[in-house]
Amino acid sequence: MNPAVLSDEVQQFINEHLSTDVHKLLLKKSPFVEITSKELVEQIESKAKAKHKLPTWFNTEKIYYPNKLNLSQTSSEITAAYKASLLHGSSLIDLTGGFGVDTYAFAKIMQQVVHIEKNMMLSKIAGHNFEQLGIANIDFHNEDGVAFLRSNDLIYDWIFIDPSRRDKDNKKVFYLKDCEPNITEQFDFLFSKANNIMVKTGPLLDINNGLTQMAHVKEIHIIAVSNDVKELLWILNKDYTGEPHIKTINFKDANPQLFDFILSDEKNALANYSLPRQYLYEPNASILKSGAFQHIANAFSLYKLHLHSHIYTSDKLISFPGRRFKILETLDYSKKSIKQLKLNKANLTTRNFPDTVKEIRKKLKLKEGGFNYLFCTTTYDERLKILICQQIF
After folding, report:
1. Inter-residue contact 21 to 42 (CB < 8 Å)
2. Residue 390: beta bridge partners?
3. Per-residue pLDDT tens for 246-302?
4. CATH architecture of residue range(s) 73-242
5. Is the entire prediction scored with pTM above 0.90?
6. Which of 151, 220, 262, 371 is deepest in the core (most CB within 10 A)?
7. 309 and 377 Cβ atoms separated by less than 8 Å
8. In whole angstroms, what is the distance from residue 292 CA to residue 260 CA?
9. Dihedral sign, CA of 380, 382, 387, 393?
10. What is the CATH code of the structural domain delimited by 3-67?
């Protein structure tokens, strides 16, 4: 951490160059003796990224940013606040504090918060930034999180851990056992330190795989922002032996889309099937990640188009946690059908279909965009269909 970055002159330079091509800046000599061009570019890139992801940080003076890779791995403010809303009690230890976005949200809810980060630079950056943000109820420790827990007799209401999904060579990993730290063999010890554990994992982790590696899972929260799944949250309770509750949330505009169920709801569900009717429904990304393909049809009294086509239909328009469309026409999949419509541009989606979007565009000579939406899918009578739709907002 270079304190010279925090001077008024340097901060002004950073703010004035948030829209500048940073590659050009890298080729120039730094205008400041104590700061390299690389350091300036790191601050500019990360602050520009923080504008929408971390507006509180962006709008606070003299925030020090890590490089863009570290920033890309942090939670957004919206997902951090959601995590904090799930807490109860008064104390929490964040074993993988990093840049501190989640820790900041926790500190606004909990009386006592501990930020553990073994990377010295990130630990110092987080400490400085919390002073700028006016947060004073956080203790900072620059060491390994699990080692810190073993070094004392302190007990907490919550443990939060976000295992790093990169190995020693900085390559991405996807299984919990390959993450750092590997918590899959630590749960007995962790539950001796807190009755409640919140684990954040990446969106690619398979839910069934996660359940085989984690103990006493009470809830799984699948969090999407603008229909892009950002993270999975696993709530573990020492005394919980029941069935996990799956809670999906998609932060979309001012009204988040919610859908909750338990695993047996999906296991026991039998959807009804139909050819396309008047309206089409596409579940949001968090629901699709959850695998509630049968249960959601029953929950909203919808018909499924095919066992493997996870889109739904009805004669009556309903509220739904996903996109809704009016079906204008249903066609067989052929060049002749598209020629009759005289379409040269459309938004294209495939669901349970043999051809890719790229192949379909080439075959049908369709450009991307416009007001029409084409769903290429297989219906329950095993026929390839094109559904011509308009989105309903």
Report:
1. no
2. 326
3. 999 999 887 899 999 999 999 999 999 999 999 999 999 999 999 999 999 999 999
4. 3-Layer(aba) Sandwich (3.40)
5. yes
6. 220
7. yes
8. 10
9. positive
10. 1.10.10
